[in-house]
Amino acid sequence: MIFIGVALLILALFGAPLFSIIAASAMLGFYRSDIDLSVVAIEFYRIAEMPVLLAIPLFTFAGYLLSESGAPRRLVRLTQALLGWMPGGLAIVSLVACALFTAFTGASGVTIVALGALLYPALTHAGYRENFSLGLVTTSGSLGLLFAPALPLILYAVIAQQLGIAGNITVDAMFLAGILPGLLMLTLLTGWSIYSSRSLPLESFSSEEALSAIKQAAWELPLPIVVLGGIYSGYFAISEAAAVTAFYVLVVEVFILREISLRNLPAIMRKSMVLVGGILVILGLSLASTNYLIDAGIPSLLFDTIQELVSSKLTFLILLNIFLLILGTMLDIFSALVLMVPLLLPIAIGYGVDPVHLGIIFLANMQIGYFTPPVGMNLFIASYRFKKPVLQLYLATLPWFLILLAALLIITYWPWLSLVLVNS
Amino acid sequence: KIATLAPDGTSWMKIMREGATEVEQQTNGRVKIRFYPGGVMGNDNSVLRKIRVGQLHGGAITAGGLSSVYPDIQIYSLPFLFRSFEEVDYVRERVDPVLIKGLQENGFISYGISEGGFAYLMSHLPLDSVDALRQQKIWSPEGDQISLTAFRTIDVSPVPLPLTDVLTGLQTGLIDTVGSSPIGAIALQWHTRIKHIADIPLIYLYGTLVITEKAVSKLTPGDRQILKQVMEKQFQQINQQNRSDNLGARKALQEQGIIFHQPMNGDRQSWQELIDKVEQRLNQENQLDPVLFKQIQQHLETVRKVKG
Amino acid sequence: MITKLKRLSALLLQMEDLLLTLLLTSMILLATSQILLRNLWDYSLSWGDPTLRLMVLWITLLGAMAATRENNHIRIDLLSRYLSVRARRISSLITDSFASLVCGILAWHAARLVLFEMEDNALFLDTWPIWPFQLIMPIGFGIISLRLLLNALIGNQGQAVS
Ligand code: NA
Ligand code: NA
């Protein structure tokens, strides 16, 4: 078994497609457990059973279309005009935009693909260092998981509620609990952005330039308002917001602004769907490998081992962070929630951890897990999207990783931050 | 190896695990049952596929989910079929064995049917009349053709959504009315978004634990008997527990200030018209066994006559 | 003969691209018209969402097929950059053959799944047999497997065909 694991690792390091490695490990696992290998196909087919996945091709296409049009240029001009006088202005706008976007898409890599494509060229164009920009867009891919209406917040509340041991958990409580920890992360990253961009030239604010930039971006400006407003007012579900975005962008860029010709459209569609195929095929097969883990009871086995080492609440929380960080790099957030919350929650309550607080710790860990080297999923998505070696992404995200780790420690050991809004 | 949608830690799973321990003890460890709770094995269709290829040996599956194996199993879930738990008990005592036999003929051993309660229409807008109902954005479970036909018959165009999207749908106003049992509404947090309930049983919800005949036939006859005895006993317990949980949840909803609308005298007429219309339409489109359906209707007539 | 074969294969590739574009276009149109129908006419398509989800499955496999054609899959690939040209050639022969084998097995088991669904007479929207809609899985993985094998044999280092 160890030999096979090492062989797969070597194949991966020498460039076998990631999906084939995941598929092979799932199939080997099932084979050794005497389970029919068509289970892998059954799990893969669950792609056609998850409504939220529809948002991925639609947002991706919209992002590609926007990035091929003049929109990034206009966005840079606009943010420069509005916030250019501030140090780190564009970086801050990027962070906030990504956090908002992720809150709606649930950190499935959509943010990097759709917004990153827009922000990365804008950032480098505005003079930010390549590694800083890469780090920002990769990190931002999961920033915002703690803000409403992120699906994981809702899911955590529902799972915890059904356990019947955590009385005060409601979706509203989770929405409230996430606000301050989320803002803490945003604030720390903003500080880092201001510090990093201190040498970039500042401009004086010109209302003429601002007005003209707003006019120029008039067609794109309603987009966030329509999409966010649409979701909050109940006109759209997330996948519908994605549809509206795709449709709106298509009409604006192709038929109104005519920056992309109908002849070029198929090529852009194809290019964006190549990326979607690459991501979803991995997702589908990782459903199968996760299913093998569940079938073989490996997560609970792993956890039992860790549980033996625990003596105090402090040790428990430290180990919890380590465990969840590792878990977050390997599992998608929904599987992790479904698998681990029922096991973790009773134990955490035993150590005196508030269930709402545990939820925030859990999601904050998952958020960082997305870009924890060496295997955090968003590292690969970013590497793929921006055509940079993964190693460069490890380096680029390192400062961001350390800052969010500090935020995570504060969130974990200072429950007040998560609970004050809930209890007030 | 048995998959369920119920998460670990629920009373449902506790009773099932107790049963598993009892079976293991009584068979001296020859029969071990492992559960995969919380839907980790996927939805009903996914679980059935995995049963087919042998990864799983059984699952706790809803009536709708099992309809692909044995269509008649969903016969109790015809809208407005039952009007009270009294009628349910009378009919189920007589018809459950027929359904369980039907499942066995299709290769599945069932250890009893467990009640999920009555689904009622729940909304954050008033539900005091049929006209009010037509104004609303009603959720229908995705893929559930019966409820879809039922709603269409009464000129309501429902919004089909998967279960997981319902809470968000209520929060955003995508839908404002759902059909749910009281325990379901509380467990899924839907009750935080509703203010009104139409106090007319809409649909009877239920599910069953099935294990494939192939897996069971590998056991010795003695072990098979123990499994049957213990699991049937546990399932009866779950059935009763759910009944009392639902009544408790109903009370909790009332205490929370949610208004239960009884159909008024004038209204009762229009509700009844609506119910008749749905029944007629479903009878026409029905692919269910007409003999069995007639049987159930006869039982219902008997019990309604006795009640006066 | 060879030119005919080449023309045929070019035609097939064009069909594949056309299908991908058509799928995405109809996805956008279907999803948007659902919203319009619901908000303007208070009407919902019961078949809308299940159809859209199947389209996501088709897009996944067609996209992955195109990604294979361009040798453009997500990889960890930390070591091959340190290899000489000759060693890299051997390394990609091994990794691509491995991936091709994996996809071949996936295609086989996906085909078995389709067969099961056919035997069980599983239905899509309670009306049509579902298995034709699932055929994309064995076909997709089969084509990916063949393309990877071709890559392994001729040492295609990846080029965009568009
Ligand atoms: Na993850
Ligand atoms: Na899962």
From TrEMBL, chain A:
Record-stated family: Belongs to the TRAP transporter large permease family.
Broad class of the protein's primary localization: membrane
Protein name, per record: TRAP transporter large permease protein
Subunit organization: The complex comprises the extracytoplasmic solute receptor protein and the two transmembrane proteins.
Species name: Sedimenticola selenatireducens
Annotated function: Part of the tripartite ATP-independent periplasmic (TRAP) transport system.
Residues annotated as transmembrane: 44-66, 87-120, 132-159, 171-195, 231-252, 273-294, 314-331, 336-353, 359-381, 393-416
Alphabetically ordered keywords of this record: Cell inner membrane, Cell membrane, Membrane, Transmembrane, Transmembrane helix, Transport
InterPro entries reported for this sequence: DctM, TRAP_DctM
Domain called TRAP C4-dicarboxylate transport system permease DctM subunit: residue spans: 7-417
Record carries keyword Plastid: no
Record GO cellular component, one term: plasma membrane
Bilayer topology: Multi-pass membrane protein
Gene Ontology molecular functions: transmembrane transporter activity
Automatic annotation (TrEMBL), chain C:
Protein's recorded name: TRAP transporter small permease protein
MF terms (GO), sorted A to Z: transmembrane transporter activity
Oligomeric form and interacting partners: The complex comprises the extracytoplasmic solute receptor protein and the two transmembrane proteins.
Membrane protein topology class: Multi-pass membrane protein
Cellular component annotations (GO), alphabetically ordered: plasma membrane
PANTHER family in the record: 2,3-DIKETO-L-GULONATE TRAP TRANSPORTER SMALL PERMEASE PROTEIN YIAM
Entry keyword annotation includes Ribosomal protein: no
Biological process according to GO: C4-dicarboxylate transport
Family: Belongs to the TRAP transporter small permease family.
Domain Tripartite ATP-independent periplasmic transporters DctQ component: 27-152
Naturally occurring in which organism (per UniProt): Sedimenticola selenatireducens
Keywords: Cell inner membrane, Cell membrane, Membrane, Transmembrane, Transmembrane helix, Transport
Main location: membrane
InterPro entries: DctQ, TRAP_DctQ
The keyword Membrane is assigned to this record: yes
Function recorded in the entry: Part of the tripartite ATP-independent periplasmic (TRAP) transport system.
Taxonomic classification: Bacteria, Pseudomonadati, Pseudomonadota, Gammaproteobacteria, Chromatiales
Localization, UniProt: Cell inner membrane
Pfam family membership, one: DctQ
Segments crossing the lipid bilayer: 52-69, 90-111, 131-150
